[in-house]
Amino acid sequence: MRRIAFLLIVVATVAVVIASTALTAGQADEQAAPAFLTQIPAGYRDWKLISMAHEEGNLHSLGAVLGNDVAIRAYREGTIPFPDGTIIVALHYRNVPSEENNKIFGRAQSFVPGAPTNIQFEVKDSTKYAATGGWGFGHFQNGKPADAAFMKPCFPCHAQEKAHDLVFTRYAP
Is residue 37 a contact partner of residue 136, using CB atoms and an 8 Å limit? Predict the structure, then answer.
């Protein structure tokens, strides 16, 4: 009887050690995960339009803001905070005059997207990105992700938009 009890204690101890090692390893992986994206989410060009954006100053850009199905549902239902799985993408282009259109209009009034400048993502995962308000941020130029130093100001800037769960873009149905 003593042997069985001793054997059960040994088995239980080993199980606890293995479980705690696995949990600790999982936490280390999560803590090591960057708060920014290093890969472009697949299929984003097929997502639905949320809104358009025009930024002047040094950016001088036009943007199309798209969302995956989770994002679109949250926008339509007015869900704040956004649910995990929400992905929002902004496709940015140079804002350029359309010479072709302006000839027809008889004056300079038409602007169209020119060369692409960058693609930016916001991905909601409240566990993975807990340190940055539940959002991971991504910035890509020519398909390449920005480095950690470039991404550092994303969260502090978005954190100023707490009332809208760190998201600047409003839905334009």
Answer: yes
